[in-house]
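Lesson 9: reading folded outputs for more than one chain in a single document. The general rule is that every protein is listed as its sequence immediately followed by its structure tokens, and records are never interleaved. Here is the first one.
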Amino acid sequence: MKDFNFKIPQTVEFGIGSLKKLQAILEENNSKNVFLISDRGLEKIGVVKKVLDILDNAGVTVSSYLDVVSNPTVDNVNECTKSYKDSEANVIIALGGGSPIDIAKAVGVLATYGGKITQYEGAHIVPGPITPIIAIPTTAGTGSEVTASAVISDEERNYKFSIFSYNNIPKYAILDPELIMTLPEFIAAPTGLDALIHAIEAYLSTAATPFSDAMAEKAMELIGANLRQFVANRSNEDAACAMMLGSNFAGIAFAWARLGNVHAMSHPVSAFFHVPHGTANSIILPTIMEYNALADNGRYEKIYNYIKTSKDKTENFVPEILISEIKKLNKDLKIPASLGEVGVTKDKIEVMAQDAMKSGNVLVNPRKTSLQDMINLFEKAI
């Protein structure tokens, strides 16, 4: 067994109604001036007000930035950083899916160390601890509340880049399943699949360890048994709890094992064609599972047993059985069958393939991948 290390450098609060623990966290840290980062969608449905009411009761000064967009941009980061500095707050509360939490991480870096956010592109460039972040996820998908990455779109380059540093991990995470029980189906399905893909790619990664495997396996168990039920009825409390916790465990898994070709490919798809991250990943997954099947060492069958709908014992398992089950899952959750169906065109294949090859995730994909392989994979997915 190869050497590895891990740490869980934060406090995670989980449970129905755990949002109310925000006040105690602020009091514990003597936080009197906070900065809230979220988006207009959550403001519209009243989730932002829930948090503002708690902050009002806590008697703290609050400033906010609510203009975070899907696939957040460098401009988004710069605007939010300016607002944060003007507020003179010393704690960031990130409320939302991956986008507000990623913005919060980027703001935490710039507010602490200055410069341009593109200077921190890559791995382990952030020099030290950043502004404390309290992450409150409102989707069961990204796991960003426990991961080391912030993913930002550079519109000048049509490129999504990652800032990977364990300094980025929020100090606190509050996992309240009530916050995902009002999600619309069109968000619950791709974000839930995204969480499952995090677990699958971490599990298949060549950088996987017994620690990441434990997190990934439990994530697949929770998500596999509850994803369909949750999408069918988001008010199903047990399914919501399982999805919220499964997403969190999947995030921990890939924080330490990285991901693979699915995520390497989805980032340029989102950068060039603005396809939502979870949707892009879900569409690409069957193509990559087919490609990686040659490298399977028995883990495909384990994944299948977590996500299959049949209770019967599977005889003479082959990887194609898992791939068929994934395609069926996508179809059940109304995920388009190809990238072409969401507007991705072949004229960008070569540049997207080049961008995908820059991802560190390609290096830990279970099957080696050349630039020509990547071009072929995009052609197949489109």
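And here is the second record, again sequence then tokens.
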Amino acid sequence: MEATEMTAVDERGMAKYLDEFEPPEGVKAELLRGVIVMMAGPDLVHNLIVLHTQRQMPLERWYPLQTQDVDIAGESSEPVPDLVVLSPEVLPSSGRLLPSQLITMVLEVVSKYSVHQDYVVKRSIYAAGKIPAYLIVDPIMAHCVLLTKPTGQGEDADYLSQEIIKFGDPVPLDALGLELDTSEFGTLPDVRPHRYP
């Protein structure tokens, strides 16, 4: 019991520390299960994938937001997805943290340093937050992994449905009522392949 209370205090302390922390320019900091994780600025391939995805979102139906901190209920996590997609009708008027229950989809673009976080850690965090769709865009393996049907809680949370779509094929984003054209998505050269998902 004492250890749990101590952990809760420590995790709240980390969230408060993150609120006041200013990472160096070009560095992204996020809280993942009580651990502050910092990442270097993204590759051009990454930024172009995010841009091509944003441009396919009809703004009258969906707001694709970058650099938006997300509050995951019941989690000591404040991830910053590469893209958060939600309906403009549920958008709050202000606030640094966007509650996960308002979000329809999150997108992460894999880098050579974020493979494990994107495929494992964030998969369970976003599922725990009951975010209906999590799209992993992987320019290392030239495919997308669409995860839907979140279930469970905490580190045991997961998505029941997983679909792998290679670059060039459309991704059926049923949660958004559209197909994502991936034909413009670039790949990262000279990065060793991995074994995820």
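What the second record shows: The longest helix spans residues 2-20.
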